[in-house]
Amino acid sequence: MTHHIKIPKGWEMPEHDLTPESIFMNRREVLQAMGWVGALSASLLYGCAPGSSEVTNAHPETNLTPLEKKLYPATRVTRYKLDRRVTEEAVAASYNNYYEFSEVKEDVDHHAQKLKTRPWQVEVTGLVEQPKTYDLDDLLKKFHLEERFYRHRCVEAWAMAVPWTGFPLKALLDDVKPLSKARYVRLVSFHEPFTAQGQIAFWQPWPYSEALTVKEAMNELTLLTTGVYGHPLPKQHGAPVRLIAPWKYGFKSIKAIQRIELIDTKPQTFWNTLQPHEYGFTANVNPDIPHPRWPQTKEKMIGTGEIRLTQLYNGYGDFVADLYS
Ligand code: MTE
User: Which domains does the chain have, with CATH numbers?
Assistant: First the structure.
C-alpha cells in the first residue's frame, strides 16, 4: 500500500480538499427517498405508521418515528470544516469500538443490535439547580438539532470523518443550571450484563463512564449526539444518545448515555481506571505525547488507508486551545 502523506493546513481547509459533498448529498437524497419508500411500504403492510415505542433502529435510515422524520436530516452547520473526505457510512458503521458488545470492531455492529434503545431516559443530576430526567423524545423536541462534520480520532491511531447530528451539551447544562461549585461533568452509560456480553467481565469498572471538566463540557464543540449520516444513530454508533468531543481521543466520546452528573471532584473513568498509563483523563489528541502502543504522530483513515499527520487537538485548536492555556 502506498501511503500518501499530506501536510494539514490547519482547521480552515482549502475548498478543493473538502468533502465531495455532492456525493454525500446525493447519497443523502437517495437515503431520504428510501426512507419514504420504506415508510410507504410499512404503512401499506401494516395499515399505519409504527408507534415510537415499538420502533427499533437497527436500520435507522428506513425506520424513523414521525418525530425523527421531521428532524432528520438536520441543517448542516458549516462552521466546522473538514480537511478530508467523509468516511463512507458503511465503513464507519462496521468498524466500531463498543466494548460492552465485542472487542472485535467488525462484530460490534451485529452484537449491539441487542440493546433496547427505546424507551430511553437521560437523568441529569448532581450539583445543579434543577435536576431533570429527559425522555429521548424530550431531548429531540427541546434542543435544536444540527449537523456537524467532525474529524474522529481514536487513540489506536485510526481516524474517520463523520457527519454527526446533535446539539451542544451546553444547551442541556444550561437547562439544568449547574451550581458554581460543579467542576466536572460525569457521563455514564447503561449496565445490562445480560444484554451486553462484555459486561460479564465483572472485574472491569462497568458501566462505561467518562468525564469532562465543566469548561470542556460547555465548549461549543462538545456535541450531545443523536444522529449520524443524516439519520438517528444506529446502535453500534451509540444509540440513542452519545457524546462527541472531537478534539479528544475517541474513548472520551461515550455511547448510550443514561446519566449525566455534575460533581465537584475528578471522577474515575472507565479506561483511565483500567490502564491509566495508556489512557489519560484529559486525552486531548496530541502528536507529541507518545502512547506505549500506538505512535501518535500519524493516523490512518479507515476506508481509504490514507495516512495523515496528526494535528494537536485534532485540528480544533482555534476552538479549544484556550481551555488549556
Ligand atoms: N462508549 C461506550 N459506552 N463503550 C465503548 O466501548 N468506546 C469508545 C467510544 N465510546 C466506547 C464508547 C471508543 S474507544 C471509541 S474510539 C469511540 O466510542 C468509537 O466510536 P464509533 O464506533 O462510533 O466510531
Answer: 27-324 (3.90.420.10)
Find out whether 150 and 292 touch, Cβ atoms under 8 Å: no
Task: Write down the pLDDT at residue 63.
Answer: 86
The model carries a pTM of 0.85
Cα R_g (the chain), whole angstroms: 19
Contact 62, 32 (CB under 8 A): no
Is 253's C-beta closer than 6 angstroms to any atom of ligand 1?
Answer: yes
User: Residue 250: CB within 6 Å of ligand 1?
Assistant: yes
Residue 316 near residue 247 (C-beta atoms within 8 A): yes
Q: Phi and psi at residue 60, in whole multiples of 5°?
A: -60, -25
Residue 289 CA to ligand 1 centre (angstroms): 21
* CA quadruple 103, 108, 114, 120: dihedral sign: positive
Q: Give me the mean pLDDT over the 12-21 stretch.
A: 35
pLDDT at 126 over 50: yes
